[in-house]
Each structure stands twice: as structure tokens, then as C-alpha cells.
Amino acid sequence: MVSPRHPVDVLLLLRRDDQVLLALRDGTGYADGQWNLPSGKLEFGEDAVAGIIREAYEEIGITLAPAHLRLATTIHHRSSAEHARIGLAFAATFDPGAHGEPLNAEPHKCAKIAWFPAGRLPPDTYPYSAACVRAMLDTTPFVLSGWDD
Q1: 95 SS3 class
Q2: Which of 22, 26, 94, 122 could make an SS bond with 16 (beta carbons 3.0 to 4.6 A apart)?
């Protein structure tokens, strides 16, 4: 039997009041045209907290510190029968004085960023991201996503 190899993703649930920040993917070949949480894969040798801090800066130009973050949920997501991944979704309450204003720092991968009510995400939100937001709202520590078929 072959042991699975799951990439580890870090996802940011940046909250402002009842809203969450999403990015519209574009030009990547993966989930283009869908809204996604700021996120990415851990790099070799990188811990999860360092990874989400790096991804937040690279994708939306904000500066986070470990004290700004809390682990909101863990997601085991399957996008196809051959591909699954583990996601660690960190929540942070947006503080413009501490974080700076979010911006589209990767226009070659992202068409735009926008705030949406966490309880009413756009219909074209990528299922992985939507599962993270639902788990955060429900305070569910662990979620399976995409495994129901």
C-alpha cells in the first residue's frame, strides 16, 4: 500500500466585523474565476504560523504577527479521487493600524480582492474556502470537504 502524500495548506480567515476577505483567482490554472481565501502551501522547512504570515504578506500585503492568529479549523479537502490536502485555517481580526490595508499583491494570480459577509459568500466561492468559512462560523475544529462521493 502506498502512503498518501498530502500538501499542507495555510488559509487566512481575515475578518472585519461579520465579513471575510476573499480573492478572485485568475490566470493560475487552478480554481480560476472562483473566490478563494488568501492561502498557499507550506514551503519546505516552514512552520504553519510562518507560512500563513508569509502568504498573507505575499497575497494581500498585510503584516501579521503570531499573536494576531488563532487556528480556527483544520480541513481535509479532496478535490478529486487522486488529490487531497490538509488545510490549517487561521483566523485573524482585521486591524488596519497593525496590519496595513489589504491590497491585491499578486495581480498575475488574482483579479481582485473583496470583503463578503461570512454567512453569505458568493456562489462562485471555491468549495475548500467555503468549507473553511462554514467551519469557522460553526466553530467546528475539523472538517472533511469533498469526501462525500
Answers
A1: coil
A2: 94
State the Cα–Cα distance between residues 58 and 6, nearest whole angstrom. Answer: 23
- What architecture (CATH level 2) is domain 8-145? Alpha-Beta Complex (3.90)
Amino acid 95: pLDDT: 97
Q: E strand or H helix at 132, and its extent? A: helix 127-138
Q: Hunting for cell 473583496 — which residue is that?
A: 114
* pTM as predicted: 0.94
pLDDT in tens, 49-95: 999 999 999 999 999 999 999 999 999 999 887 888 999 999 999 99
Percent of the chain with pLDDT over 70: 99
Q: H helices within 5-95, ranges in order?
A: 48-60
Cβ pair 24, 14 in contact under 8 A = no
Write out the three cell numbers for 92.
485573524
Domain extents in the chain: 8-145
Residues facing residue 36 across a β-bridge = 23
- How do beta strands 70-80 and 142-145 pair? parallel
Contacts of 123 (CB under 8 A, 6+ apart): none
| Residue 42 backbone dihedrals phi, psi, to 5 degrees | -65, 145
